[in-house]
Amino acid sequence: MCGIVGYVGPRDCSDVLVSALQKLEYRGYDSAGIAVFDENDAITTVKTEGKLQNLKDKLQIVGKPNGHVGIGHTRWATHGEPSDVNSHPHSGARVTIVHNGIIENYQEIKSFLVGKGREFLSETDTEVVAQLLDFYYDGNPIATIDKVMGEVVGSFALGIMFKDFPDRVFAVRRESPLIVGVADGEAFIASDVPAILQYTKDYYLLEHDEIATLTNDGVSFVDKYLNPIEKELKTADWDQEAAEKGGYPHFMIKEINEQPEAIRTTIMPRIKDNLPNLEECGITLEMLKGFKSVTIVACGTAMHAGMVGKYVIEDLARIPVNVDIASEFRYRNPIVGDGDLVIIISQSGETADSLAALRLAKQKGAKILAIVNAKGSSIAREADMLIYTLAGPEIAVASTKAYITQISVMYLFAFELALANETISVAECQQLTESLQKMPEAVKYVIDNTNEVCKKIGSKLITADSLLYIGRGLDYALSMEGSLKLKEVSYIHSESYAAGELKHGTISLIEDGMPVIAVATQTDLIEKTISNVVEVKSRGANVILVCTEACEQKMKEGIANYKVVIPNTHELLMPITAVVPLQILAYYTAIHKGNDPDQPRNLAKSVTVE
Ligand code: AGP
Hints:
Rossmann fold, alpha/beta, Glutamine Phosphoribosylpyrophosphate, subunit 1, domain 1, globular, binds 2-deoxy-2-amino glucitol-6-phosphate
């Protein structure tokens, strides 16, 4: 999604903006631009389609605007194709803005402005806001912003410059995220914390409809009634190093390698005496008693983490669990209410559909537990109960360490829920928790020992047009994530199927040489899975088996073309280690195909629009 930055201070503004935008590249974008007050206090805008390198090249050619106040943007196209003219910043005669989000009533406003004789250069909803600000501008920026806020409908974060105020940047948001960073004599705006970490760790979270004014004397805020407000200064606990590649060629492989530490950091503070203890998150055993049902709502990878959660919660806590895609849940009049628990899982905490699902479930009277990575994000703030995954910044678009920490939290939560509802004994819970504590080491072992074989298999997959992932039970939940990971970064079509469902249609797709990735980690289901593997193999599939040592022993020699064997751990916990080769395989397939795994085409890291 779009990235916004802004700067006021003594540094070279163009350099700061480009460098901060670079830290937001992971969000996904297709064009970039900056606008800076130059030495004559005129606003100079430079923008272009394509990656930041194109912007840097253009700045070299046309000359970098010299100044100390400015705004910048990376655009992920929604209204209007990626092009120079549709790139941000956009301007009216006296106003220049950058925008993240969607203005839902922009057509209506545009017609109104066209009726007043205004002309538009671009197809964007953003230019409509720039022109509306200009239309209402009466010399008072805050009052003008407030007036426009009353008329626009939708989600937005805006960085705004008024021609008459060359010493300041204004910022406002509704739904879309925006932070305001501060350091001695300088101030920043950004869509996300990593953009400013190179300059400061101190920031304010801008709340809905608050307006910030940034000057080099400091930052001031007004609330939606335009009353001045004091806000709590936050300090980021991520440092710059954590948001950089640290010697790895890509963030994706760096983040895969960070998984053992991410699990450890996430689970250890929530375990006491070999038992889960969520008091650190303000969650007591008492609070978890007596839920009638659990509904897990999320998108993409986070939803797949929910699928693992379903198996584990149902197995241990014996409470029925539904897993729902947030974009479906929010429009379906879902059956949740008093006595039900709704779990929202999100790395960014800003996914528009997941946030809307949270609000709907809350309004219907359900209790909301959020499992979120980004501190202080909207989903984190609006939930009744909150467990942070402590994965640190996840920069690659393809989620890896966020997923592994999400499922680690799902396990801890399921153990605690089962304990609260007395469906497992303390001794059983201790045994499970002990096994969970061994997972960081187990994941490290799997990373170290499957890298080479996955690299080799990845090189064989690049010619495939399509492939299947199959598994049963937890292995099915896991193959959904394996399939998504491969699709995202390799651009090879794949489907995940419950292995037992193949015969009901999908097996007709199997033809000579089609790769089928079979996940087999559950010994109680292994005989069934073997039958399915034999069925596809005998129809010409190239079988890649990802299995445990125990499952491998049950397989006949020659059943698979390639095998990735991982050590046995507690079978309920197997998704934690078994996901690793699936991630590494996706990574190397992308690399062998020459794709950039960190910024896959058409994708954005944080999906803050519907
Ligand atoms: C997965 O690799 C993707 N990045 C995507 O499916 C992601 O999990 C989804 O968009 C949800 O994002 P969230 O966790 O930030 O809510």
